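Predict structure. Chain length: 295.
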Amino acid sequence: MAKHMSSGPDGRRTSVAPVVAVIVVVVAVAVGVLAFVGTRAPATNAESTGEAIGSASVDASDAKETQKEDAKVTAKDYKSEVARQLATGEVRSVRLIGDSITAGFGTDGYDNAVQTEDTDVIYSDESGDTQFETPASVNCWANAFRAYAKDRGVREFVNAGINGAFMNRLADHPSEWLDGGADVVFVALGTNDAGYYGPDEFRATAQRGLAAAAQKSKVLVVLSPVRDLRPEYTLVEPASDLGDILKEICESEGYVFVDPRDYVLPSMFNADGLHPNSTGSLAIWDCVRETLGLE
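Prediction complete.
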């Protein structure tokens, strides 16, 4: 009992129990306060984190909306996907598939250039048929396009125009003519087909040929044959009418269609009435530029 009692100032013994009780109460209150604070701190942090996540979500949503609006504005800035990709440097390769009009036959410098300038092979098959590219010095629409494309970062530009070519060459030998393909492929065929094939046969062949070209390109552009001066009695189907068939296929399949029929005037042909001269050939380039919005 002596361990729990002490003497007061007056000499009487005093109990320490009340003092101990007070101390216990104070300690209990302190522990309770600490416990309360300890349990509330994580909740406060969670709330703060939640607010931050909510704020980040709003910011991300706003950023997406801004990107969508920017994309709409960007799309409006270009008349075609080809124009956009050329302007932004996305096009690294272009390949033209065509006949003698694409090759530049009948334009200034053609005859001399093909006889004196060495160029790359643009077509070769198992039969031994090997064709070479028209030199870049020839004054034709393909080379005007070549110069434009090179100025915009296109590294590989191939004019695979072949004299006397038909659509069935593309349909039956796509790998030989398209090679590895290109970012953008242009197909300009049908002029020679007009003298041999009716609309139904041409349509079927064109569907196969264009589908093969589309598989080897990011964007496929199809040109109508020009309205040439050949007498209709020499043709199975006027070349310009085959242009309507190509337009229908393009609308159905989502290919880009370019129509130079009203650009190449009768005065812009050579004496054969079939091949445009340099003025007529460059008129095709004018049509391509205006249709696609190439600035």
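Summary: The first helix runs from residue 17 to 77.
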